[in-house]
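Would you be willing to look carefully at the protein I have copied below?

:::
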Amino acid sequence: MSLFAELRRRNVFRVGIAWLALSWLLVAIANLLFPALAMPIATVRWLLLLMLVLLIPVLLLAWRYEMGPRALRLDRGPDSDNPLSQPTAQRIDQVSVVLVLGALSLSILYQVIQPYSAKRGIAQAPQASAVKAPARTPKPAKSFDPRSIAVLPFANLSPDPDDAYFADGLAEELLNVLAHIADLKVTSRSSSFVFRNTTVGASEIAGQLGVAHLLQGSVRRQGEQVRISVQLIDAQDGRQLWSQSYDRQLRDIFELQREISQSVADSLSDSLGVRTVEVAAATSDLQAYEWYLRGRQLFVQRGSNLPAARELLERAVAKDPGFADAWATLAGVWYVWRSYAPEPAGIDTLQRSADAAAKALALQPDHPGALAVSARLTAIGGDRLRESELITKALALEPNNANTWLWQGLGLFEVGHIDAAHASFERARQLDPLSGLQSGWLGISTALRGDRAAGEALLQQAHMLGWRGPASRALFLLALDGGDDSGIVAQRYADWLHDDDTMAADQRELARSLAPGLGKVDQLEHARAVLSAAVAAKPGEEWPLLLASFGMNEAAMASLEHADRATAQPLVLSLWFTSFKSLRAEPGFMDWARRQGMIDYWRALGPPDACTLHESPDVALTCTE
């Protein structure tokens, strides 16, 4: 008899399968019970390892012994007569089936009840490589403002996994409502939503976000019925301050948002002094509202998600033309488009943004999101004093909006008020500490204020958080500023071209061919000649920043004269890097700055940092840095 046949006859395979099924069952039981007993997750791993180690002696026993008429006995070989051999095999198969079914059932039960582990002070968090579950949950090293809160992503318990957008949308809506409460600091979505699908202690989350309280919950939706469970956690000690479950019809969603927000405000009333929270229904059309939630979620993610976000938001405003929030978000989509992708053929994205913002403001004249977009568009259009008024108004209406603080910083940065821009960037990062966008601009202002090492560290962090193209471009410009050796400059130039998705493919290939001109003086003139020819052949492309990077200041100014608003913007946001000081000294710069609204701004609100504005004999700007 072959070895394989002998193993089958002695039921070694059957016993091995039964033992593995038993191991699975024990691990499933441990997953359910050990957290309740405060036992560490490592205990489950040790249990599994023990069962696997014991598998070897179990298989040896199965080989050596068989079930006899009265008890276990040594196996006497294939020629012995054992009437219980076949019944024993059948019983082992039956036991294996029972064990597998039990383990499978408990595993499914664990997946269902896992979201509720938050009620023990454990936060369910977004899957992100930047967040790792610590072996233990430390308390924050310092106490935070008691008037601060982060809204974590709600767990989706709906039968349809596609309803995850609805759970996210509800959490974000609550975040937006709470952000309007005076004196309450609310962490931005892009940071708090990092904590999804990973278990991290409440104190650790608070430490990373800089808040004293966490709001977390779950959503189960079936048709038009929705059940929402919410709890407010004191992040310092994991204590539950308040919890509630709500069963509502979907049409009551805005009233439900008001109830939850009011309960949170009541729980924090000692520090806030809040009495009433108001929530206005954004739309009466639930289909438009669902499209809006999906579109807004994609808009927040930026990048390649923008076309889908645009489509969903356009559906929403077509279904309900009076939906101001959807119009404002659509305006934001069009405004940021050129920062992440080439402009679609035949579409002026900035004009589309202006149209959408105007429709939002016609419906709701004090809509903070639409005011913020309008402020940025006004700056690009050349009225920077009006931009300052609009962005200040938007922040007064929505002081917890990290994106609006960032945009205020960009407006200040463009006119050379680097210190004031830095303060706005710092505030934006406080509200959104895990955002690459906020870290990146704070890194740029930090470097330009003199601390290049700290600035570059922030830019590297921003790159890791997904703000790749702009961070790489800033690191390249800082290398030009700092007089780094040609090898570092060339490497950072290559990194920029690799990471920047906004540049057209043919222009990117041309730019790569110019790299030797950054490293060798004898090749610089050749690179400039190639670049001049390319500009002459395709003058409508985005050349100003590339020209200035190769020291072709006169050509860069000439290109700016003919560039549209979107094409000029990358250079506008780079003017105050030290390497472009000579560009600002070009004869045509002050005329261009006047058309950009900068001179009127400097006259009213002060010249750029370390600069003096001269009015005679001609308007001129002299700077010491």
User: Anything to note?
Assistant: Confidence is low (pLDDT under 50) at residues 114-141. The longest strand covers residues 239-249. The chain is about 60% helix and 10% strand.
